[in-house]
Amino acid sequence: MGTQIERRDGGIVVITVDHPPVNALPVKGWFDLAEALRDSGADPQTRVVVLRAEGRGFNAGVDIKELAADPGHDKLVAVNNGCYEAFKAVYECPVPVISAVQGFCVGGGIGLVGNSDLIVASDDATFGLPEVDRGALGAATHLSRLVPQHMMRAMFYTGQTATAQQLAEFGSVHGVVAREGLLDAALAVAADIAAKNPLVIRKAKAALNGIDPVDVNRSYRFEQGFTFELNLTGVSGEIRAEFGREKEA
């Protein structure tokens, strides 16, 4: 349980997140993931990283129970910093990052895959941002990298999800496969990239980041400011408490 790093032949590193029951990460989980990504990218032997998860879904965002148990704002500040560092570590990893997504990918999961270089998804994968329903904001920056502008807005306001097949039509998902073949499909793409000159690939990653029209780190940090504002008004705590009661009912 937690975050594991597996170094495979050919310079492929597989990072696996395993936080039962739904991979909703606590503060430590986000920072551990960021550290795993930074350590993997810093290794000169690494040519490509595959980011995956165990369980029913890829990622369910932050651990809302951990936030609800904190009477102040310490956990909120910590988890926001953790998400920022994890998303940033994906984006700034010196080598390409391939996300292998199964089941649900919501909230913070969108931040991870939106900053990835490639996405391979199972045919049951869905993507969404239920932040408004949780009294929070954020990761619209990353959803904008996956779907067209007006679809992003509709998904953000309504909490609706998009399927892997829809994202494949947009070109955001590289391939859609049966769940049992997900890791193999991601590893096949990784092997194709890893077989190329490693210096060229690292320079290509730096060049592509350099021509991005949006600074994803600054853009996400701007979004986070509104999450803090909502929490200071008290409305976020009320919505989280109601969400907790709904889960228990």
From TrEMBL:
Xref: CDD domains: crotonase-like (cd06558)
Family from the record: Belongs to the enoyl-CoA hydratase/isomerase family.
Highest classification ranks of the organism: Bacteria, Bacillati, Actinomycetota, Actinomycetes, Pseudonocardiales
Domain of life: Bacteria
Protein source organism: Saccharopolyspora mangrovi
UniProt entry keywords in alphabetical sequence: Lipid metabolism, Lyase
Name used for this protein in its record: Enoyl-CoA hydratase family protein
InterPro entries referenced in this protein's UniProt entry, alphabetically: ClpP/crotonase-like_dom_sf, Enoyl-CoA_hydra/iso
PANTHER family: (7AS)-7A-METHYL-1,5-DIOXO-2,3,5,6,7,7A-HEXAHYDRO-1H-INDENE-CARBOXYL-COA HYDROLASE, ENOYL-COA HYDRATASE-RELATED
